[in-house]
Design brief:
The chain is elongated and about 70 Å long. By secondary structure, it is of the alpha/beta class. Helix 9 packs parallel to helix 15, helix 10 crosses helix 11 and helix 12 runs parallel beside helix 13. Helix 13 links the parallel strand 13 and strand 14. It has 2 domains: 169 residues, Phosphoglycerate kinase, N-terminal domain (Rossmann fold, 3-Layer(aba) Sandwich), CATH 3.40.50.1260; 156 residues, Rossmann fold (3-Layer(aba) Sandwich). The longest helix has 15 residues. It is built from 16 helices and 15 strands. The structure holds adenosine-5'-diphosphate and magnesium ion (MG). Its main location: cytoplasm. Belongs to the phosphoglycerate kinase family.
């Protein structure tokens, strides 16, 4: 790709890894079910190309990751042994799970590794130093290896020790997943096949303002759904019942509509909505025009008329990025709008990119993940890219031109 990450930063293809100890920051932050088992191993699978690439070339692969939020202490159910087990099945080779991520025992194990071996360090966030980018902790992690590879797109927007501290000490390059994620978002933002559409939803407009402000100057079509549509309704003077309206964002939303008009961007709000008294299963629901939301109701989903209009508008697009569900899709009564958009993207002949944790969950729930061009493994990092913000994890890597 012309303006791909590899033009700017080194990747694993640029270095010789044979016999080298390679510390790979991966994102194994997988969801766990109630029994503590891995509920979805998508993120583990997404890291396989980089791990296989390194093993096949005779590197000694030292994997590290966080899992969930242990808040700086050891939490037994958040040990990475369960990830190591799954990895070893997927890779068809042993993956040793270590009891810590730094210290003499870890150093001893690493010293005994052979070419092609894979070990997985313990949950980085068992140490409070990880999240505050403690320099000693970063230096100790770096001391385990000769080369650092960042393949953890999901945390590349965080200035944590394993993301930005370690690369200060070692040659630092991008892994294949990080490269693919960054290149996907860069391409759609900088050189999309047109027409280019963005569908933005989710609960809060304040979470999405930076994204909306960045994409408005790039897209041809902007669809607004989710709870945040209520703030757009309020800015137009419609009644919004008991829906959450973010009064601090009203001016920003008005500016967005003005900018869309100025630039000839087609901005669509849902023409109708599903409303309910509560955002809970089993409550009675009604479809009403967006201009006639009853005083005692909350907007819970886009309506069928809006879904029809959104799907028709999307059908003409060649590139679509989607962030934020159209409704409270976790509740079956309010999932239809999100399902309709997912189905429209699944059949679209063009590039479809899903960014956002809940949006990816929704697409997975409908069984449509494989029909998309790309489902991002990062929520916050995808938002940062869509907002045009630099990722600290990427910036910390060696420049392509470095010796
Ligand atoms: P993502 O993780 O994909 O970026 P967000 O975190 O912005 O998405 O939003 C996801 C949440 O938005 C979901 O939990 C969903 O229930 C909620 N949501 C969607 N529509 C509404 C609505 N009308 N009212 C309240 N919450 C909503
Ligand atoms: Mg979210």
């Amino acid at each position: 790709m012309q303006n791909g990450l590899s033009r700017r930063k080194k990747t694993i293809r640029d270095i010789d890894v044979r016999e080298r100890r390679v510390l790979v920051r991966a994102d194994f932050n997988v969801p766990l079910d109630a029994d503590g088992a891995i509920a979805d191993d998508t993120r583990i699978r997404a890291s396989l190309p980089t791990i296989r690439y390194l093993c096949e070339r005779g590197a000694r692969v030292i994997l590290c990751s966080h899992l969930d939020r242990p808040d700086g202490v050891v939490v037994e159910r958040l040990r990475l042994a369960l990830v190591a087990n799954r990895l070893s099945v997927l890779l068809d080779r042993p993956v040793a799970a270590l009891q810590d991520c730094v210290g003499p025992e870890v150093e001893g194990t690493v010293a005994g590794m052979n070419n092609g071996d894979v070990v997985l360090l313990e949950n980085l966030r068992f140490h409070p130093e990880e999240k505050v980018d403690d320099p000693v902790f970063a230096a100790n992690l770096a001391g385990l290896a000769d080369i650092y590879v960042d393949d953890a797109f999901g945390v590349s927007h965080r200035a944590h020790a394993s993301v930005v501290g370690v690369p200060e000490h070692l040659p630092a390059v991008a892994g294949l997943l990080l490269e693919k994620e960054v290149d996907t978002f860069t391409r759609i933002l900088e050189d999309p096949e047109r027409p280019f559409a963005a569908a933005i939803g989710g609960a809060k407009v304040s979470d999405k303002l930076a994204v909306l402000e960045h994409v408005i100057s790039r897209v041809d079509l902007l669809l607004i759904g989710g709870g945040m549509a209520a703030t757009f309704f309020a800015s137009r003077g419609y009644g919004t019942g008991r829906s959450r309206v973010e009064t601090d964002s009203l001016d920003a939303v008005r500016d967005l509509e003005a900018k869309a008009a100025e630039r000839g961007v087609r901005l669509l709000l849902p023409r109708d909505v599903v409303v309910a008294e509560k955002l809970e299963p089993g409550v009675p629901v009604r479809v009403v025009p967006s201009t006639a939301i009853p005083d005692d109701r909350i907007v819970a989903d886009i309506g069928p008329g809006a879904a029809d209009e959104f799907c028709r508008a999307l059908a003409g697009s060649r590139t679509v990025v989607w962030n934020g569900p159209m409704g409270v899709f976790e509740v079956p009564e309010f999932a239809e709008g999100t399902r309709r958009i997912a189905a429209a993207l699944a059949t679209l002949r063009g590039t479809t990119v899903i960014g956002g944790g809940s949006t990816a969950d929704a697409v997975g729930m409908f069984g449509l993940a494989d029909e998309m061009t790309h489902v991002s493994t990062g929520g916050g990092a995808a938002l940062a890219m869509l907002a045009g913000k630099p990722l600290p994890g990427v910036e910390a890597l060696d420049d392509a031109g470095d010796p």
